[in-house]
Amino acid sequence: MINGRFLQAAAALILLLAGLSPSAAEFPMADRVVVYKSERMLQLMRGDEVLKEARIWLGLSPRGHKQEEGDSRTPEGRYLLTKRNPNSDFFLSILVNYPNSRDVARAARRGVSPGGQIMIHGLPNEPSRTEEYYRLADWTDGCIAVTNSDMVDIWLMTSANTPIEILP
Questions:
Q1: CA 155, CA 121: separation in Å to the nearest integer?
Q2: What is the mean pLDDT of residues 63-88?
Q3: I need a surface site. Which of 36, 107, 134, 146 has the fewest CB within 10 A?
């Protein structure tokens, strides 16, 4: 059975693909995003109010802060959501502005590249694994993955330079 939330997300996606915006009343704007890595939870926040919660999947090595390119860790710290890509390899993606100056300096002291291209995104457009695989385990290279329907909400409820805090 199709529920109202699904229909709302589908309508928003149609509007998004048509280049239109749904009303702000339907999709209130978050003023920040908080990610709790250990709880596998993302929250869209406005002030102290949780507007939306979404389950997340992380990098293949989820514990600890990203140290270098290729370590499959998801960074921890304060960043911004910047560039949006409706044509990514995943169902929508929003870039996290990792690495920041501290990340670059930390990596330079170790003589390694800090990596980059950390995003919030939906499922792969061309999956290489079963649906069950993507539901049951962390599977990204260090990004924050959500379901496609949650990605529509995140896309519509955030704007350029929305702060994101990624906690252990």
A1: 9
A2: 94
A3: 36
DSSP string, 5-55: HHHHHHHHHHHHHTT----TTTSPPPSEEEEETTTTEEEEEETTEEEEEEE
Residue 97's contacts (CB-CB under 8 Å, 6 or more residues apart) are 79, 80, 81, 82
CB 9 within 8 A of CB 145: no
The tens digit of pLDDT for each residue in 91-101 reads 999 999 999 99
Helix/strand/coil percent split, the chain, to 5: 25, 30, 50
**What are the φ/ψ torsions at residue 110 (nearest 5 degrees)?**
-90, -5
Neighbours of 24 (CB within 10 A): 10
Whole-angstrom Cα distance, residue 28 to residue 49?
Answer: 11
Could you tell me the pTM of the whole model?
Answer: 0.84
SS3 105: helix
Residues 123 and 144 sit within 8 Å (Cβ to Cβ): no
- Ordered by where they begin, the domains of the chain are 25-167 (2.40.440.10)
CA distance 142 to 66: 8
For residue 22, what are its two tokens?
């749904």
Beta strands 119-121 and 144-145 are parallel
